[in-house]
Amino acid sequence: MSFQEFIDYTIIKTDSISLTVYQVLLFFFILFTTWFIFRLIQRIINRKFKKLETGGGSRYALFQILKYFIWVIVIGIALETIGIRFNLLIASSAAFLVGLGFGLQQIFNDYVSGILILLEGNLKLKDVVQMEDGTIGKVEEINLRTSKIETRDDFTIIVPNHRLISNNIINWSHMESRTRFQVNVGVAYGSDTALVEKVLLDCANGHSEIADTPKPFVRFVNFGDSSLDFQLYFWTEQTFRVENIKSSLRFKIDRAFRENDIRIPFPQRDVHILNGRE
User: Fold this and answer.
1) What is the pTM of this model?
2) Dihedral sign, CA of 83, 84, 86, 87?
3) Less Cβ around it within 10 Å: N or C end of the chain?
4) What does the domain layout of the chain look like in residue ranges?
5) pLDDT confidence of residue 143
């Protein structure tokens, strides 16, 4: 069999469709070429704008929407090349798609949510977000149905897009570059509260990842059951890794308290035993 005979070989032949090897090869060639062009364009865009600090999320959203739109057109053209009318395919499958839609409502909801996320721009790549369940992570990828979020524990979780639309999400990246956090600490009754305040401020002011302005401050919160309760407030730009900053700050506080003879109490209970008489 010659090469010409091979590519003209009919794989499927019906009253409405005649599918040859050439048409199959052309179909996959169109898809591969489109994929390759998208990859090339994305690399060029990333290389050209990699030094810009703003607008990355907008470019990504625009590119994603344009990519999905073009893919629909390309797939339609590719189907036309093999003799399948795209509009007739949709029309003939309408009843099936309606029935399927009832069973896949949540998936369609995710796709619509993905489009809204890309269009609105309220959620962008590298944004630090806090989910309703308390999970904090950085947005690494936004697709039509799901998004990938990297947590502080370096786990990647795949989140259905409807959760990012319908649930309450805290986007820390929408705040100022410096965000306020706090560390709670309790000291024993009888401690010098002025000294406690000074030690806490010294620990915060000497930390390399805590901002100088606004200045850290201490709040005397409450007279607790077993301790005098304080909160140390500070600002930092390292919002994603702030738990590491809090941990190192607690180490400094513990060491400074020991050096200044300030005790951190443990919970205590007074038990009174009554001797009853019959």
Assistant:
1) 0.55
2) positive
3) C
4) 8-92, 122-174, 179-259
5) 82
Could you tell me the fold of the domain covering 122-174? SH3 type barrels. (2.30.30)
Burial class (CB in 10 A: 0-12, 13-18, 19+), 51: exposed
DSSP output for 82-115 = TT--HHHHHHHTHHHHHHHHHHTHHHHHHHHHHH
Residue 147 contacts residue 195 (beta carbons within 8 Å) = no
Q: DSSP 3-state helix, strand, coil percentages of the chain (rounded to 5)?
A: 50, 20, 30
**Number of H helices and number of E strands within the chain?**
9, 10
Tokens of 215: 């200045």
- The strand pair at 136-142 and 128-130 is best described as antiparallel
DSSP 216: P
Determine the Cα–Cα distance for residues 202 and 216; give it in Å rounded to an integer.
9
pLDDT tens, position by position, 111-147: 778 878 877 778 888 888 888 888 888 998 888 788 9
CATH code for the structural domain at 179-259: 3.30.70.100
Cα–Cα distance, 200 to 248 (Å, whole number): 13
Exposure b/e, 151-176, CB count within 10 A at least 16 = b: eeeeeeeebbbbbbbeeebeebbeee
